[in-house]
Amino acid sequence: MKNASSLLIVLLFLSVWEIGARLANQAFILPSPIQIAIKLWELKEVLIINHLPVTLLTIIIGLAISIVSGTAIAVWMFSNPSVRKALYPILIASQMIPVIALAPIFVLWFGYTIWSKVAVAVLITFFPITVNTFDGLASGKKETEELLLTMGATKKDIFLKYSIPTALPHFFSGLKVAVTLSVIGAAIGEWLGAQAGLGYFSRRMMTQFDGAAVFAPIFVLTVVGIVLFVCVTFIEKRLVKRRNIN
C-alpha cells in the first residue's frame, strides 16, 4: 500500500511537470520528462560507458576512505575522552564550511584528477559516518558494562561483543546518509573541475543550452543514489537480523 502511494505521488509529480513543461514550451530551460527520457535513451551509451564508471569510482573510493577513517576516529574518540574533546568541535566546524567553496581549492591541489573529486566526496560523507558511529558506541548503558565487568568480561570483550553490536544500527544510519551525499559530492566535484563523469557531462550540456541533456545524467545520478541506498539497507537488515538471532 505504501509503495502504491509513493508511485502515485511520483506519477502525479511527473504529470504536473510534463504539463507545465509543455505549457512553458522552453525545453532548454525546463524539458519535459518525456523529452528527458528520449534524450537519456539517445545518450545511454555515452553516459553509461564513458561517464558513469568515472563517477562510480569516485563515489566508491570516497565512501571507502570515509568509512575506514570515520570509523577509526569514532572508536578513537570513544576510547579516549581527551581526543573526543579535541576532535569533536573540529568535526562540527568542518561542516560549517560550504563544500562548494572548497571544491575549487581541491582542484588547485590535486588538479583535474580523480582525487579532487574524491576529496569532495570524503568531506561531505565523513561527518555522518563518524558522528553516528561515535553516538552508537557511546549509547551503551554503563550498568550493562559494569555488569559484564563483574561477570569477568574484559574491556576488549565488552567493546567487541557489546559496544560494536550496539553501535551497528547507528553506523548504518550514518552510512545511508553518506551514500546519498557521496553522489552529490562526486557530482559537485565534477561540475567544478573534471574531464569526465556525469556531473561534468551535465555541466558541458548546460553550455550548449540542451536542457534535456542536462537532466539526463542527473537522472542517472539519482538512480545510482537509490541503488546504493537500497544496497546498504539490504546489508543492514542482514547484519542486524544475524545479530538479533545470535
UniProtKB/TrEMBL annotation:
Entry-linked Gene3D superfamilies: MetI-like (1.10.3720.10)
SUPFAM superfamilies: MetI-like (SSF161098)
Keyword vocabulary terms for this entry: Cell membrane, Membrane, Transmembrane, Transmembrane helix, Transport
Family annotation (Pfam families): BPD_transp_1
Cell compartments where the protein resides: Cell membrane
ABC transmembrane type-1 domain boundaries: 48-236
Lineage: superkingdom: Bacteria
Main location as per UniProt: membrane
Ranges that cross the membrane: 48-78, 90-112, 118-138, 171-192, 212-235
Membrane topology note: Multi-pass membrane protein
Protein family: Belongs to the binding-protein-dependent transport system permease family.
Database matches in PANTHER family: ABC TRANSPORTER PERMEASE PROTEIN HI_0355-RELATED, ALKANE SULFONATE ABC TRANSPORTER-RELATED, MEMBRANE SUBUNIT
Protein name (record): ABC transporter permease
